[in-house]
Amino acid sequence: MQTAHDYDVVVIGAGPAGEGAAMKLSKEGKKVAIVDARGQVGGNCTHVGTIPSKALRQTVFNIMRYQRDVMFQRVGELRNVPLSQVLARAHTIIEQQVAVHSRFYDRNEVDVYYGQAHFVDAQHLSIKTREGGTELLSFASAVLATGSRPYHPEDIDFSHPRVFDSDKILTLDYPVHKLIIYGAGVIGCEYASIFVGLGYKVDLINTQVQLLSYLDDEIADALSYYLRELGVLIRHQEQYERVETFDDCVVLHLKSGKKIKADAILWCNGRTGNTDNLALEAVGLQANSRGQITVDQQYKTAIPHIFAAGDVIGWPSLASAAYDQGRCAAAHILGVADTPRVEDVPTGIYTIPEISSLGKTEKQLTEERVPYEVGQAFFRHLARAQITGETVGMLKILFHRETLAILGIHCFGNNAAEIVHIGQAIMQQKNGGNTLRYFANTTFNYPTMAEAYRVAALNGLNRLF
Ligand SMILES: Cc1cc2nc3c(=O)[nH]c(=O)nc-3n(C[C@H](O)[C@H](O)[C@H](O)COP(=O)(O)OP(=O)(O)OC[C@H]3O[C@@H](n4cnc5c(N)ncnc54)[C@H](O)[C@@H]3O)c2cc1C
Ligand SMILES: NC(=O)c1ccc[n+]([C@@H]2O[C@H](COP(=O)([O-])OP(=O)(O)OC[C@H]3O[C@@H](n4cnc5c(N)ncnc54)[C@H](O)[C@@H]3O)[C@@H](O)[C@H]2O)c1
Fold first, then answer.
1. In the prediction, which pLDDT does 73 show?
2. Disulfide check for 285: which of 127, 274, 280, 358 has CB 3.0–4.6 Å away?
3. What local confidence, expressed as pLDDT, does residue 446 receive?
4. Can you give the residue range of the structural domain that contains 12?
5. Closest C-alpha residue for ligand 1 atom 5
6. Which of 317, 320, 345, 357 to mutate to test the pocket of ligand 2 (most atoms within 8 A of CB)?
7. Which of 148, 154, 186 to mutate to test the pocket of ligand 2 (most atoms within 8 A of CB)?
8. Looking at the structure, do residues 101 and 213 belong to the same domain, yes or no?
9. Are residues 449 and 435 located together in one domain of the fold?
10. Where NAD(+) is bound, by residue (predicted)?
11. Domain assignment present for 342
C-alpha cells in the first residue's frame, strides 16, 4: 500500500465549514490537512454561491440606483447589460477572496491538497489529485464539509445551452430578454431581483402558495409587492410538467396547463449534499435521499471520529452558519464539551429590497398565544434613508407586552442584513438586558439607519396600555 501522510484531522471541503474547522484545529496545535476538488480554496460559497451572487447583486443595485438619480440619467443606457460584463467585477472579488483564504491556510500551516477525496476505510482517505496522481492520508478524526450542489431532476437536460442552474448561470454569455426562474426559494428570489434589475423580463415560478413562507407575513408580502413593482411576474402554486428546449428558446409546461416561453430557464429548485463520491460505505456511513448526513448535537456523525458541518448536513445551509458549525465540530474534536450547537441563525436575503430577520414571526407568536406587541419604523421617515434615497423598507420589532423582552426582529430595505445585528445583540442579552427599553433609552448617532430602533421602540411602547 502507498505510504500515507499522517494527520490528526483531515477536513474534506475548503468552503466556510471546512475552513472554520481547519483554522480552529490548527490553532489548537493539531496537524491538519484540508482537501478540495476545485483546485482553489473558498468552496462553492466563494466560486459559485454567496460571493458571485452578492457581487452581482451589488453591481445591479448600483445600476438601479444610478438609473433613479436624475443626475445620472445617461446611465439609463445600461439596461440589458451583458451578464459577462457585470460578472467581471464578481471575478475580481472571487480572486481576492481566494487570495485571502489561501493565506489563512499558509499562515496556520494547514496542508492543502487539491483533488477529489474518498474514504478507503475509517482511518484513510484517498485523493485523486488534479494532476492525475493519488495521495493517501491517514487521520485520527475527519470533518466532512463537502457542501452542496444544485439538484437536477432527471428529466431536465442541464447540458442544453438554454437550461441553467445557479452554478451554470454564471457562464451565461448570450443576450437574454426573457428568463424563466423555476423555484422561488432564496436563490430564485435573489436571481429574480438581479435579472429584472438588469432589464430582463423575468417570470418567477413558485411551487408554494407564497414567497419564502417562513418569513413574517408582512415581510413576505412586501417582497412580493416590490418584486412585482420591479417587473417580475410571479406565479404561485405551479409545478412543472416538462421543459421543452429549442435552439433559440425554451418552453416551460406547467401542470396547470399554462405554457411559458423564454430565451432561457434558470432552475432554482432544490440542492443536494455532495456525498455521492465519498465512498461513505467504506466507513459505514449513509446519506439521506438529499445527499445529506445526519449529525448529533456535537456535529458528530454515526461514526464517532467523523464529524460533518455546513450544507452537507442540511439546515440552515448558509455560509454564515457553516463557518460556525465547522468551528463547533472542531471544538468537539478537541474535547471542549460545552461548545453550544449553532442555533438562532438570522436570515439575510439579498433580494432588492434586502430582507433580514431573527426570532419569532407574528404568526408563530399568535399560535403560541404569546402576548406580544409590535413597534415599527418606516425607512421613508428616517433622515438617513431620505439622504441616501433608499426609502423603501421597514423595521419591525416584536416584543412581549409585559416583560418587554424582544421576541423577533424583521426588517426589509437597504442594509437590512446589517441593521438586524443591532437588534440581535440586544435580543441575545439574557439576565434582564434584553428589553425594548434599551432602544428607547439609548442615544443613537444621527442620521443613521440604527435610529430605526429608537423609532420602532417608541412606536411599540406607545401602543401599550
Ligand atoms: C446562489 C447562492 C447564493 C447564496 N447566498 C448566500 C448568502 O448570501 N449568505 C449565506 O450565508 N449563504 C448563501 N448561500 C449558501 C452558501 O453558499 C452555502 O451555505 C455555503 O457555501 C456552504 O458552505 P460549505 O462549507 O458547507 O460548503 P461549500 O461552500 O459548498 O464548499 C464545499 C467544497 O467541498 C468540495 N468538495 C466536495 N466534495 C469533495 C470531495 N469528494 N473531495 C474534495 N472536495 C470536495 C467542493 O469542491 C467545495 O469547494 C448561497 C448559495 C447559493 C448557491
Ligand atoms: N441569502 C441567503 O442566505 C441565501 C441565498 C441563496 C441561497 N441560500 C441557501 O441555499 C439553499 C437553497 O436555496 P433555496 O431557498 O432556493 O431553496 P431550495 O432550493 O433548497 O428549495 C427549493 C425547493 O426544492 C425542494 N428541494 C430541496 N432540495 C431538494 C432535493 N434534493 N430534491 C428534491 N427537492 C428538493 C425544497 O423542499 C423546496 O421546495 C437554502 O438552504 C438557502 O439557505 C441562502
1. 64
2. 280
3. 96
4. 5-49+89-148+272-333
5. 50
6. 317
7. 186
8. no
9. yes
10. 183-190, 270
11. no
Domain count of the chain? 3
Q: Which residue's C-alpha comes closest to atom 29 of ligand 2?
A: 270
> In this predicted model, what pLDDT tens digit does every residue of 146-186 receive, in sequence order?
999 999 999 999 999 999 999 999 999 998 999 999 999 99
Cα separation, 207 vs 427, in Å, equals: 34
One domain, residues 304 and 386: no
Centre of ligand 2 to C-alpha 303, Å, is 27
179 forms beta bridges with 202, 264
- Identify whether residues 256 and 288 lie together within a single domain: no
Is residue 314 lining ligand 1, measured as CB closer than 6 Å? no
- The answer on whether 326 is annotated among ligand-binding residues is no
Contact 166 CB / ligand 1 (< 6 Å): yes
pLDDT in tens, 248-294: 999 999 999 999 999 999 999 999 999 999 999 999 999 999 999 99
Domain annotation covers residue 387: yes
- Are residues 182 and 252 in contact, defined by beta-carbon separation less than 8 angstroms? yes
Mean pLDDT of the chain: 95
N- to C-terminal Cα separation, the chain: 78
- What pTM value is reported for the model? 0.94
Task: Flag whether pLDDT at 396 surpasses 70.
Answer: yes
Q: Among 69-78, 215-224, 258-267, which is the least confidently predicted range?
A: 69-78
Task: Supply angle C-alpha 206, 396, 211, rounded to 5.
Answer: 0
CATH of the domain at 223: 3.50.50.60
